[in-house]
Task: inverse folding
């Protein structure tokens, strides 16, 4: 077996299940789960109708490259939602479907990382202030805390993760200036996420242009996870895409850019497992070759339903309105008792539960007392000499109904007051 499997850490939700295993929450309180980023809004009926209509096409092998109608729908979505007027987005060479961003992000790293072996990547870069003892293994730079797929993909590719703490001191975004030049020289992929998971922070165009300059100067790819790009606070100010930053800075073929988006959050379709990657056509050409062997072609009914979803915006606007309503209802309840801000994007709250508080114990006791499940912040991060940037925080996923989220906030306050 791949010896790098031994380097993988338990997934946050596995750790959460173990943490809560012996709890017996009060049965009179209905369980409320805000621990996973799984939208529970009703999926758009037009997508469900398309799936039903095309189920007879399950008898056909799908092409890895995807149907032209899907790639054109994605390209049109990007021209309308992510790019300035007149910007090019060639559906033939710049777009590929992926089975959700998770699959795409993971497989990109396997295709992109070079020159690594299990033995040459035996140590891990863990901080912004120290380097590793191994100066040969490739590096993948990522936010800390973040989506654990970034780390898992890195380790299984035989590379070293390099963690950039996102804290209030950094504006809850990765501080690219804190990375030594020697690390950038070994970097093969930089993961960015905007709006961020779990912080909800949005990366500015200026920040993204700086990242592109670093990628050009040190010859690495940027994997921009824009899974939450359609969920944001200000209807007139959507989060800027890496693609826009590339185009406006003269990189008209999106050199070194690989942007991932998904229907899971945008359209409340996590079970459809449908997303896309768009960007540099030369990288895309090689990534497509990898994917033909990877065996990840999207079923034809899913492709046709996805084309419908990417082409329709009314349901997405309604989705944003629902999340805004949840923030507007929940935050006034929590703020007198917690240090919590409304994020610029996404659907998470990332409150500070009180400095030295053990976030795992807090989560366990909250569940035992109130039948409310959140995710300990430390489970999403890695410890560095500066500490674990998730310690003393919890992630609250406002994915349930408005009334359930309000009830969850009231239970959380009852728990805090009782302590």
Result:
């Amino acid at each position: 077996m791949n010896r790098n499997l031994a380097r993988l850490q338990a997934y946050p939700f596995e750790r959460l299940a173990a943490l809560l295993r012996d709890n017996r929450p009060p049965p009179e309180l209905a369980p409320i789960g805000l621990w996973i980023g799984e939208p529970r809004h009703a999926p758009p009926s037009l997508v469900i109708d398309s799936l039903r209509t095309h189920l007879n096409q399950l008898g056909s092998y799908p092409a890895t490259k995807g149907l032209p109608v899907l790639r054109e729908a994605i390209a049109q979505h990007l021209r309308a939602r992510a790019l300035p007027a007149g910007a090019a987005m060639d559906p033939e060479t710049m777009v590929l479907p992926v089975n959700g961003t998770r699959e795409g992000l993971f497989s990109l790293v396997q295709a992109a990382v070079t020159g690594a072996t299990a033995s040459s990547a035996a140590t891990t870069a863990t901080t912004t202030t120290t380097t590793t003892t191994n100066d040969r293994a490739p590096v993948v730079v990522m936010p800390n805390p973040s989506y654990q797929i970034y780390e898992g993909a890195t380790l299984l590719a035989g590379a070293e993760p390099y963690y950039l703490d996102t804290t209030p001191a950094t504006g809850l975004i990765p501080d690219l200036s804190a990375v030594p030049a020697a690390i950038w020289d070994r970097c093969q992929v930089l993961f960015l996420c905007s709006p961020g998971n779990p912080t909800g922070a949005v990366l500015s165009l200026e920040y993204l242009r700086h990242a592109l300059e670093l990628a050009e100067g040190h010859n690495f790819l940027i994997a921009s996870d824009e899974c939450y790009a359609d969920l944001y606070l200000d209807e007139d100010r959507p989060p800027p895409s890496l693609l826009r930053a590339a185009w406006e800075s003269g990189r008209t073929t999106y050199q070194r850019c690989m942007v991932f988006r998904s229907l899971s959050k945008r359209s409340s379709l996590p079970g459809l497992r449908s997303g896309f990657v768009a960007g540099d056509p030369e990288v895309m050409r090689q990534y497509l070759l990898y994917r033909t062997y990877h065996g990840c072609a999207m079923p034809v009914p899913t492709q046709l339903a996805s084309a419908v979803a990417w082409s329709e915006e009314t349901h997405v606007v309604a989705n944003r309105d629902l999340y805004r309503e949840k923030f507007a209802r929940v935050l006034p309840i929590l703020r007198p008792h917690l240090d919590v801000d409304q994020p610029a994007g996404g659907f998470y709250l990332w409150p500070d539960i009180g400095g030295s508080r053990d976030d795992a114990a807090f989560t366990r006791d909250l569940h035992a007392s109130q039948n409310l499940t959140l995710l300990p912040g430390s489970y999403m991060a890695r410890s560095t000499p500066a500490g674990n940037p998730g310690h003393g925080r919890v992630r609250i996923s406002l994915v349930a109904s408005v009334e359930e989220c309000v009830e969850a906030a009231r239970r959380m306050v009852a728990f805090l007051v009782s302590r």
Notes: The chain has 14 helices and twelve strands. The chain has two domains: 3-42+315-418, 59-311. The mean pLDDT is 94.
